[in-house]
């Protein structure tokens, strides 16, 4: 027997975290007639200025949720990815892999993170969004949970979805104290005006320039609909501080083997978002009977396969479908983990492979996930 419709509409669902995973999940639940309250620690919803590639299994959910037209308007279809040397010699030019049963689906949609999160939040009733709420403790009573926030408020819920990122409070309090693993790399990200990119992004090809000597690389993601390009530098670094203080001269030094045009682009940027890059090892379990992890909280992965945000969105879609299909919340959480975890475990492993000049494919995921 399924969770009856009346029961579904009366469920008290709380989402902790208003990043891409939490926001997408609120939209997915709304699409199943489930109201969720979303609690975010920050005073405003703000996303890093950077592009991400939305993949067909993710876009399928956007169609289900009725937001595809808007996504299409605010994104760009890319058909190819290239791996190039740091000086611009093309080593690999490859179509995006086929991850669905539709042979036409060899593409990604390139979108600015802020546009994506805006589209999600525009779907949600404003009274369901609670900013300035940092969850600091959670008590699991088996069939319900009590969540406490640092502003003194607390709420009770039948289901808590912890989408609170790689340093998840909920994960550390309830499931395991898995520590994030430092990748010994930093990412420096910015969005630049297309006209200042020396025609390095003339079409919708997603490019990765790789320095064979240092392993440093530069992602070039065109966002033509915005007349912009997302520019993402990934470099080796021993400094493990989460938000490293990095000066522009340090960034330029990391790029000294790169094409002078790339150096000039980097030189012109004033505001980089600088982050140390961490992931976690796969967890054994994501959920209790009334609390579950989702997105980076459950399976933070490195960015080399471009799958972290995609996975978080797909988690939200699958979780909402599992609640729709199950007889109880514990059963729904079991179905959700069984459907999602084998995939994200694999992506966590694959994502530890950075792009390399000697690589045979731009998409190591092909060997595991490409539809035959
Ligand atoms: C350089 C780089 C490039 C990337 N490129 C891609 C790409 O191309 N494609 C892709 O799919 N993915 C990409 N990713 C990965 C992607 O950014 C993440 O996987 C994704 O943002 C995870 O979303 P999330 O909602 O799970 O977590 P987050 O985005 O971390 O959101 C967590 C939210 O929870 C809030 N929060 C945290 N703790 C609490 C608390 N205690 N109480 C209340 N709120 C809390 C935070 O403020 C935040 O808003 C990239 C990552 C990096 C670093």
TrEMBL record:
Residue ranges of domain FAD-binding in the record: 11-346
Pfam families to which the protein is assigned, alphabetical: FAD_binding_3 (PF01494)
GO molecular function: FAD binding; monooxygenase activity
Sorted UniProt keywords: Monooxygenase, Oxidoreductase
Claim: Oxidoreductase is one of the keywords in the record: yes
Biased amino acid composition, Basic and acidic residues: 346-359
Annotated segments matching region Disordered: 346-372
SUPFAM superfamilies xrefs: FAD/NAD(P)-binding domain (SSF51905)
Protein name, UniProt field: Salicylate hydroxylase
Provenance organism: Alteribacillus persepolensis
Lineage: Bacteria, Bacillati, Bacillota, Bacilli, Bacillales
């Amino acid at each position: 027997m399924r969770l009856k419709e009346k029961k579904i509409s009366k469920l008290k669902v709380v989402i902790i975290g208003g990043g891409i995973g939490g926001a997408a999940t609120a939209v997915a639940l709304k699409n199943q007639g489930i109201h969720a309250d979303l609690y975010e620690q920050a005073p405003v919803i703000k996303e890093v200025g950077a592009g991400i590639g939305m993949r067909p299994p993710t876009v399928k959910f956007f169609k289900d949720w009725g937001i595809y037209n808007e996504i299409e308007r605010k994104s760009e279809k890319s058909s190819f990815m290239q791996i190039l040397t740091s000086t611009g010699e093309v080593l690999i030019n490859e179509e995006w892999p086929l991850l669905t049963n539709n042979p036409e689906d060899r593409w990604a949609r390139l979108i600015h993170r802020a546009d994506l999160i805006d589209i999600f939040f525009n779907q949600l009733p404003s009274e369901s969004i609670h900013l300035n709420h940092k969850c600091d403790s959670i008590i699991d009573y088996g069939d319900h949970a009590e969540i406490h926030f640092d502003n003194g408020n607390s709420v009770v819920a039948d289901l808590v979805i912890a989408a609170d990122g790689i340093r998840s409070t909920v994960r550390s309090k309830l499931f395991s104290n898995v520590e994030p693993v430092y990748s010994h790399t930093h990412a420096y990200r910015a969005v630049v005006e297309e006209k200042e990119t020396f025609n390095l992004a003339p079409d919708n090809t997603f490019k990765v320039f790789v320095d064979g000597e240092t392993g440093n690389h530069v992602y070039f993601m065109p966002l033509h609909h915005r007349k912009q390009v997302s520019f993402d530098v990934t470099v080796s670094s021993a400094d493990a501080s989460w938000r490293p203080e990095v000066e522009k001269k340090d960034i330029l030094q990391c790029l000294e083997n790169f094409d002078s045009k790339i150096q000039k682009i980097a030189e012109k940027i004033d505001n980089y978002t600088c982050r140390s890059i961490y992931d976690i090892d796969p967890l054994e379990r994501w959920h209790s009977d009334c609390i579950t992890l989702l997105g980076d909280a459950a399976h933070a992965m490195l960015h080399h396969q471009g799958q972290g945000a995609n996975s978080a969105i797909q988690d939200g879609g699958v979780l909402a479908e599992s609640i729709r299909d199950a007889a109880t919340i514990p059963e729904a959480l079991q179905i959700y983990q069984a459907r999602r975890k084998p995939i994200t475990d694999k992506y966590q492993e694959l994502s530890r492979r950075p792009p390399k000049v000697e690589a045979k494919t731009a998409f190591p995921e092909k060997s595991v996930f490409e539809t035959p």
